[in-house]
């Protein structure tokens, strides 16, 4: 299987591309920023074909950052970029300044991502990755470039990174104008009540519900399952299992298509992790495994081990996963607390994890066989065939940037395999609630501030797998979020303190 599975009609050559674009006068191109926001534009067909035939085209560095180099070529500084509301980050990142006037990055076009956008009269669409304009190397915080690094590392061992992603998301009967007019207060859910897996609730707004599935298929974002989840107006959609790069593309393109369809129907879908304090949040569970060059799942046990399980398994719950999978799991658990901002990147995301046990949102360094209470759910025989053996990372919310989350998961897992790490803790079944209260279980950071402080410290495992440049820049973007949050006065504070303080 290729590192990224190309779309069905992806061109093999410029001549094929010209045939695909016959009859079109424009092309839409886009790339992802550090928050997973899709940033793009229309290009004329001639300009697009010229870019394909060269290194790419210029794209303003403010969406990520720009590098300034001194005469000997040594890296010195980068320009602070935009946050998800187009505000420039509040402090200099990597000794950043505006000396070079936010010069262009090179956006290189990935022809394997060719699609037509069904809701835009089938305009041709391509994704881009961002390169340094001088070295032509991937920009250190380009989401697609970061994940490609870890996919490449796995390939050196003859493995493919395989993944699937599930999103839960609320729907509101609101438009961008009504959200602004209401100041995001008293929003109307698409449907009332708690109706997980309901066949009745899908009869309401049925055109919108069905369109998500059908349009996703036409947009080559394959869906495995699509249903209502518990909560007012909540849907859940599981994206098809494929290569890590393809599923990360698919995940953020899925958000784009759902939001685009929502505008058509006067609906605002939200992938915010915790929009309601007293209701379950929105998960973004990630399933991962590794395959060899023949498509065999290397997390699976050998056929002869299916009878009694693998000898030497650290615990009975792990006897139907391979030794390689056990090392991978140990690596994820060993570094989980150090990479939390890549898994839970927003202030709001940690609200989902606080007291998360009540809503199946795990908040500790735990794992267990088929356990939805654990941070890492081990999925293996006897509940699934050996070919479906995998790990489900349940920490992530729907607001996740899947490129960074998958990079962290595979980076930690590959580190565990390389170092043959032992499991740091027993399965969750070995612990009680009292053990958790007594501090016998390592808790995950409970705020973005705590998580970021842990990630950026000098001896963080995040620095070992991602490198200093990524950690310093991405950590700076999270510190920007924290600063804005600390400066904000919330309605809760006003209601609690205004009269009686």
TrEMBL record:
Pfam families associated with the record: Gln-synt_C (PF00120)
SUPFAM superfamilies named in the record: Glutamine synthetase/guanido kinase (SSF55931)
Alphabetized SMART domains for the sequence: Gln-synt_C
Signal peptide bounds: none
GS catalytic domain location: 143-501
GO molecular function terms attached to this record: ATP binding; glutamine synthetase activity; kinase activity
Residues annotated as transmembrane: 48-68
Keyword field contains Transmembrane helix: yes
GO biological process: biogenic amine metabolic process; glutamine biosynthetic process
Keywords: ATP-binding, Kinase, Ligase, Membrane, Nucleotide-binding, Transferase, Transmembrane, Transmembrane helix
Keyword Cell inner membrane recorded: no
Family: Belongs to the glutamine synthetase family.
Name of the protein in question: Glutamine synthetase
Lineage: Eukaryota, Fungi, Dikarya, Basidiomycota, Agaricomycotina
């Amino acid at each position: 299987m290729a590192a990224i599975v190309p779309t069905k009609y992806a061109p093999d050559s410029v001549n094929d591309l010209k045939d695909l674009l016959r009859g079109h006068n424009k092309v839409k191109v886009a790339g992802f920023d550090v928050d997973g926001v899709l940033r793009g534009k229309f290009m004329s067909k001639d300009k697009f074909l010229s870019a394909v035939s060269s290194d790419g085209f210029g794209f303003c560095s403010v969406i990520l950052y720009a590098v300034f180099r001194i005469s000997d070529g040594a890296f010195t500084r980068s320009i602070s970029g935009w946050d998800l509301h187009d505000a420039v980050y509040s402090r200099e990142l990597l000794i950043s300044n505006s000396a070079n006037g936010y010069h262009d990055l090179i956006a290189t076009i990935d022809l394997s991502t060719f699609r037509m956008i069904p809701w835009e009269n089938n305009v041709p669409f391509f994704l881009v990755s961002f390169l340094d304009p001088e070295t032509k190397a991937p920009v250190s915080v380009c989401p697609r470039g970061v994940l490609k690094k870890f996919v490449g590392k796995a390939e050196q061992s003859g493995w493919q990174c395989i993944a699937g992603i599930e999103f839960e998301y609320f729907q509101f009967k609101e438009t961008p104008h009504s959200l602004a007019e209401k100041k995001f207060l008293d929003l109307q859910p698409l449907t009332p009540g708690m109706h997980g897996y309901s066949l009745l609730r899908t009869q309401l707004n049925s055109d919108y519900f069905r369109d998500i599935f059908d349009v996703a298929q036409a947009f080559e974002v394959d869906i495995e399952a699509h249903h209502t989840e518990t909560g007012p107006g909540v849907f859940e959609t599981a994206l098809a299992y494929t290569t890590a790069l393809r599923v990360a593309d698919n995940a953020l393109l899925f958000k784009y298509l759902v939001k685009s369809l929502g505008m058509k129907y006067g609906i605002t879908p939200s992938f915010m992790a915790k929009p309601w304090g007293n209701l379950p949040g929105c998960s973004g569970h990630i399933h991962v495994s590794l395959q060899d060059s023949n498509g065999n799942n290397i997390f699976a046990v050998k056929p002869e081990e299916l009878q009694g399980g693998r000898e030497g398994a650290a615990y009975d719950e792990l006897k139907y996963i391979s030794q390689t999978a056990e090392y991978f799991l140990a690596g994820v658990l060993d570094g989980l607390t150090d990479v939390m901002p890549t898994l839970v990147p927003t202030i709001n995301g940690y609200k989902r994890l606080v007291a998360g046990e009540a809503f199946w949102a795990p908040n500790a360094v735990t794992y267990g066989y088929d356990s939805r209470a654990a941070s890492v759910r081990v999925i293996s025989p006897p509940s699934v065939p050996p070919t479906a053996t995998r790990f489900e990372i349940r920490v992530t919310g729907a607001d996740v940037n899947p490129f960074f989350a998958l990079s962290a998961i595979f980076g930690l897992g590959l580190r565990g395999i390389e170092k043959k790490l032992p499991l740091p803790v027993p399965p969750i079944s070995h612990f009680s609630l009292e053990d958790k209260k007594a501090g016998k279980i390592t808790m995950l950071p409970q705020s973005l501030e705590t998580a970021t402080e842990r990630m950026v410290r000098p001896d963080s495992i995040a620095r070992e797998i991602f490198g200093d440049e990524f950690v310093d820049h991405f950590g700076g973007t999270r510190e920007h979020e924290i600063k804005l949050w600390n400066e904000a006065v919330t309605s809760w504070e006003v209601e609690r303190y205004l009269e009686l303080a």
